[in-house]
Structures are given as C-alpha cells and as structure tokens.
Structure prediction request, 501 residues.
Amino acid sequence: MSSPARDDAELVTYQMHVDGKWVDAVSGERFESHDPFTAKPWSLVPRAGAEDVDRAVQAAQRAFTGGEWPRMHPSQRGALLRRLGDLVAENAERLAHIEVRDNGKLISEMAGQLRYIPQWYYYFGGLADKIEGHVVTTDKAAFTFTRHEPLGVCAAISAWNSPLLLATWKLAPALAAGNTVVLKPSEYTSASALEFARLVEQAGFPPGVVNVVTGFGPECGQALVEHPLVRKVAFTGSDRTGEHIYATAARGLKRVSLELGGKSPNIVFADCNMDDAVKGAVSGIFAATGQTCIAGSRLLVQRQIHDQFVERLVAFARSARMGDPMSTETQVGPVTNLPQYEKVLGYIDVAKGEGVQTVLGGGKAERPECGDGWFVEPTIFTGVRNSMRIAQEEVFGPVLSVIPFDDDEEAVAIGNDVAFGLAAGVWTQDIRRALLMSERLQAGTVWVNTYRAVSYQMPFGGFKRSGLGRENGQDAIKEYLQTKSVWISTASEVPNPFVMR
Ligand code: NDP
Prediction:
C-alpha cells in the first residue's frame, strides 16, 4: 500500500478496526479530514457513535476474558509487540507521509519520529515478561506474595499533534501488561491510527485486542469514557477536556492517566552558551509550529543579556523557512486545523491588547510559499508580564513571550507562577545552578542545556494542571497493572473463625 499523493483528486475513504474487522460506523456517517497545507479535505473517516463504541469495548472485553490473549505467555506478548515494532519500522516512511498529510508537521520531524516509535514496542515488549510480584514477609502463618495483573479494557484517547507517537505511549505499555485497548484518535488526525491497525492485524494480534474507533470527542470519546466495561482511561489533550474526563471516569471509579497542556518556562541565564540557548529557544517554540505540549512558550531571559539575546533570537527565527511540510527544506509548517489556527491568531490579538511589543511576526503568514494553508508567522513578544493571559494560557502555536528576570530566585518564582507544570528548560554553564533549578522548578521534566528531548526509557508527565500519572519508562507499565495479594495458609490448624486474622 502506498501513501496517497497530494494531487489525487479522490478522497481516501477509511474504515475503523473493531474486533479484527474493518467496519463503517453503524450510522454510515463519515467526516472529512483536511490537509493543513492546502486547507482541502483529503480523506473520509467513519463517524463513530455510542453503538460503535459499545461494539469495540465489548470486543475488547471478550478478547481480555477469553480466547488467545489472556492465555498467551507474557514472552509471546512481548514477541508480538516486537513484531509490531518491526512492522512500524518497515512502514515508517509511508506512515510519516500520512501524518504530514493529516497534521501538517514537517516530514523531517515525522520521519524521525516514525523511525523512533518502534523503540517503544521493543522496550515494552521486553518488559512484558518482567512483570514480577514478590514474596512478602508477613507476621502471619502464611506464604504471601503479590502478583501484578492487567486492568482489562483500556481506553486510549489522544491529541492531533503527534498522533501515532502519543497513541504508542499508551498502547505499548497497556498491551505489554496484558490489557486490551480501544483507541480513539483525534478527529483531525485519525488516518495514521487506522493505518497502524493494519499493522496490528499483520503482526498477528488476536481480534479485539486493539480496536480503533474514530469520531468526535463529545460523542465517540465521551461514550468510551462512560462505558462501564472500560477500566482505565489514558488521555492526552487539553487540561479542560482532561478535567472533564477525570470527572466522568470518577463516576465509574476508573483509573485515569492524563497528559495535558503546559506553559513551560525556558530560562536563559547570563552565563549560558548563547549560541546553544538561541537554538534551544527556537526549538522550544517554533519546532512543530509550537504545537507541542512541552513548548517553551515563556522565555525567561536574565536582564543583563535580555536585549542582546532577543536580537540574536529574532535574527535566527526570522530566517526560518516556512512552506510545504512535505519538503525537507521547510522549517516551520502550518497549524494543524482551522479552529487551532483561529485560536492562535486570537491569542496574538489578546497579547497585543495587553500591551506587549511585537518584535517578530504577529499575524497570519501570507507568503507565496504558504499557499492556502493555515500558517501563522513565528511570533515573538517582549515586554510581557507573567500575569498577562499570553503568559498564563496555553496557545499551542508559534508564539513566544519573553519575560526578563534578575536572579535565580526571581527565575524560579516566575517559572513556577502558572497553573501548569509539564516541562522547563534551563540554560547555564554553572552546575550548581543547574542542580538547584532542576530541584526547584515545578515541572515533570527539567532540561538543562537542551530542550524537547524525550525517550521511551524516561518517565514523562506533568505536575499541577499538566496531568496525572507517567508515560514512558518503567513507571508507565505500572499505570496499566493492579496488585493482587495472595495468601496461602501454612498454619497447622484453622484459626478461630470469629476473629479477624
Ligand atoms: P482536546 O482536549 O480537545 O482533545 C484531545 C482528545 O480528546 C481528542 O481525541 C478529542 O476528540 C477528545 N475529546 C474531546 N472531548 C472529549 C470528551 N468529552 N470525552 C472524551 N474525549 C474527548 O485536545 P486537542 O486535541 O486540541 O490537543 C491539544 C491539547 O493537547 C493541548 O492542550 C496540548 O497541550 C495537549 N497535549 C498534551 C500532551 C502531553 O503529553 N501532555 C501532548 C500533546 C498535546 P476530538 O479530536 O474529536 O475533539
């Protein structure tokens, strides 16, 4: 199967993957997915409702309780995951093209991401047969040990900015732990999840172990979170939706992990290596057109280098090549969808209304190389106060707020003075300062002299309104397991039945 070419006039029509079969929505309805570079539809995706979700969850429940999957040795589960990783690697280029078509991220970034995704399946495949309980010493006459068991049907709901990567962060540990999964990708980027389901099938996973339903959050996503057979919801998205999902899941006493938004401080000290810090600031906010939860959207610059740093930053960012995300020459692509494009432009207006100075960009990018796409100029604001909306609310676009600070204390105070706590960057050559900052910044990840590094081996997640639980690393698999305590009596006689032992 090849990836659809941009000049194909015909829309690609997708089906969903439920219980090992390719199906349309029960209603027969579909919706269009757009190419952000052309702003034109390129594919049609089934619009799943509650009945479709019920079918998928029932299939996942059947696969969890009967058939091959629960009887499969964990080493075999691991082998299947590694096979899936191999298939993703073999199809990386094609999947990367589909991702770019659907979400407008750069081919240079997505190709790298798709080549990296198999590592999650290898790593968690390797962990599948290393889920070990332990023998516990108790004060009772009993042989006591713990087992770590899967939860059941897990719902995975993800955002549009890195569709397959974010789905993988949930699927790989959930499956390694022995759960079954119903995945609902973002309505803006469903295609890659459906293409991925073909690889799941090809790898030989039993039917119902991985199901993909596509549709809109308030109908398809909501029905999934509410479904009584779903035991865990793993979600990536905005803090507001995350809060709503948390409340909905609480009614069914379901486990929840939430990877939410951020307003991360990228903190530049006067003793930094300035060339590195300029690149780090640019990568923090303009890579992926700022559409990353870890965007370093608040750039805190020590006052004595503020003007010089901003000048170098603006010069560097101004040279960024915008255009077709399919071109390896392009450095800044379009915004993924129309509502997000309008939201980013709205925040630019909010910031201007708050009295900031615009030192770069500040509006739509209407250059010939941007075609009809949803492009926003890389934008840098100075004169930002941390209390302004532009410094407090997540924009999720290429918009940087520069805030000066005087000393370490003030950097920490400003850095932590937001509702979010996903990530932080620190640029300094002083190891003492690096360690102190990494301790005092309230963020799930602190990078020193680097930005945006992630790995399958390193836990990832948020403090404060940025989320609950951890993805990646050995912590992630624990999110999909529950502990069982087993007691085998070694007493020579049954104790008094009327007294608690
Ligand atoms: P949303 O919160 O709008 O949506 C995320 C997912 O939830 C989508 O699949 C959406 O479906 C679905 N959804 C929406 N409403 C409901 C509901 N009531 N019940 C169940 N599911 C629902 O976020 P975006 O897709 O706009 O993504 C951007 C956000 O994601 C940003 O805030 C960003 O910071 C965050 N993010 C966090 C990351 C992290 O790891 N911390 C990584 C990437 C993004 P639909 O698409 O149909 O609306």
Summary: The mean pLDDT is 96. The domain at 265-448 is CATH 3.40.309.10 (Aldehyde Dehydrogenase; Chain A, domain 2). The chain is about 40% helix and 20% strand.
